[in-house]
Amino acid sequence: MREYSRLYIDGAWRTPSGQGMAEVIDPASESAIGRVPLGDQADVERAVQAAHRAFGDWSRTPSSVRAGYIRALVEQLRTRAADMADVITAELGMPVQWCRSVQVEGPITGLAQYVELAGLMDRVHEVGNSRVYREAVGVCAFINPWNYPLHQLLGKLAPALAAGCTVVVKPSQETPLHAFLLAEMIDAIGLPPGVFNLVSGPGSKVGEALARHPLVDMVSFTGSTGAGVRVAQAAAPTVKRVCLELGGKSPLLITADADLGAAVRHGVQDVMINSGQTCTALTRMLLPAEHYAEAVEIAAAEARALVMGDPRDPASFLGPMCSAAQRQTVREYIGIGQAEGARLVCGDEPVPERGFYLAPTIFAGVDNRMRIAQEEIFGPVLCLIPYRDENEAIDLANDSPFGLSSAVWAGTSERGLELARRIRAGQCFVNGAGFNYCAPFGGYKQSGNGREWGEEGLGEFVEIKAVQV
To answer: What are phi and psi of 120, to 5 degrees?
Structure first.
């Protein structure tokens, strides 16, 4: 049992003003594995004031010094990577075979690039009689999700520290333990008081107070589109900058000349990693009509072959869903899909009795206008949709309110790249290409605005000043 009774504010562990503690539940065992404080508006006020006081000195600190703190945090995370992975597996339920690489080592790689990128803040661009400077945006509030908790936290924190911003972090109530462990590491590297502050608690109190606070200059939120709209509305009266990484209903377009088996198996695995609780999951598989029946068989066989079980077992491909509530939401969507006339190919296989497990689910005979094809389900559910020609496939890919991610699997990478340019999404993966932490990450349309990671991620935390001389 990991129990934290204090919040991290102004460089020290402080007794919270808020009353009560929240239990953290292991989704595999349904038992409590930790407790964290329930902060309130008074705790938010203390944290924001601390960040506000610290901003002046921190933003004027040489970029090389800020880079040194980032380097020290990278080393802390590398030293304690196994501990961090264990914590995230316990609070989220992602199997260990994925958790260490996806949830911890990847984000550390992303963090490390900002040791060098911090130097971009020193660049001065001259145009005519003007000198154009980059300056830190100010005090930033981070409202983080539960599905990739450290990944999304570091995607915000790394560029913010590099730019010279100070921050207040609110982790998800489902998976807050990783953030407290990270705060221990930040305390160990001696980051100046007030630069990093951590306040846990419900979004209705802590998140809303952060989004509305007049001394918060920017809020970065990752979560559902509906919640993102509410954050933007709360931030609007103070005209603060808002960066939103929201939902997705991403297509995987498989061409007629692609390696069908490899493409379909990749698509199934992509959706089922983290039990479908991935905003970029390729949950709409677009298939040439002439190969549709064969693809359905391949997809069903692959889904049934994936091992579901204890996330601490290295053999498990899928673990449980994060919470009973999320599992219930997905079950309701499965019922909606059946009522809409889609055919359940698999998904009724037995699952462990204890834990929030849900079997990999595949629907065939899906029309792109169905709710299961248009709404983010956020579970291990894949829709197989046929198309007649590639123009229709592109139309189907773009026929979505979302545009976070996408993928193309084609006979050649050159052909895949041509099709990728026609899809309206913030990123596209061609023929199984991997994630790149040096590239910008973010979405089109209702998938949000702004970018994380890479040089573009740094730009979200930068103000531009022109000085005429």
So the answer is: -65, -25
For residue 97, the surrounding DSSP H or E stretch is: helix 96-98
What CATH code is carried by the domain that includes residue 425?
A: 3.40.309.10
Helix (H, G, I), strand (E, B) or coil at 201: coil
From 91, 174, 245, 302, the catalytic residue? 245
Same domain, 215 and 328: no
What are 3's strand-pairing partners?
35
Go through the chain and tell me how many residues it has. Answer: 469
CATH of the domain at 28: 3.40.605.10
For residue 103, being part of any structural domain is answered with yes
Sign of CA dihedral 112, 181, 43, 35: positive
Pairing between β-strand 218-222 and β-strand 448-449 as defined by DSSP bridges = unpaired
Tokens matching residue 295: 């693809």
Q: Does residue 1 carry a pLDDT above 90?
A: no
User: What global pTM score does this model have?
Assistant: 0.96
Angle subtended by helix axes 177-189 and 63-79, to nearest 10:
130
Distance CA 245, CA 224 (A): 8
Long-range contacts of 298-302, Cβ-Cβ distance < 8 Å, separation of 24 or more: 298/260, 298/261, 298/264, 298/265, 299/264, 299/267, 299/268, 299/345, 299/362, 299/382, 299/384, 300/345, 300/346, 300/362, 302/264, 302/265, 302/268, 302/269
**Cα distance between residue 58 and residue 193, in whole Å:** 10
Asked if 40 and 201 touch (Cβ cutoff 8 Å), the reply is yes
Token pair for 318: 């899928």
Q: 251-285, pLDDT tens digit by residue?
A: 999 999 999 999 999 999 999 999 999 999 999 99
Domain count for the chain, please give it. 2
Helix (H) or strand (E) holding 325: helix 324-340
The predicted-structure confidence for 162-204, as pLDDT tens digits, reads as follows 999 999 999 999 999 999 999 999 999 999 999 999 999 999 8
pLDDT tens, 415-441? 999 999 999 999 999 999 999 999 999
Q: Which residues pair with 198 in a beta bridge?
A: 8, 169
Residue 152's Cβ-count burial label (10 Å; 0-12, 13-18, 19+) is buried
Which of 230, 125, 285 lies closest to 219, judged by CA?
230
Whether 245 is catalytic: yes
Distance CA 446, CA 448 (A): 5
* Together in a domain, 194 and 308: no
Helix (H, G, I), strand (E, B) or coil at 162: helix
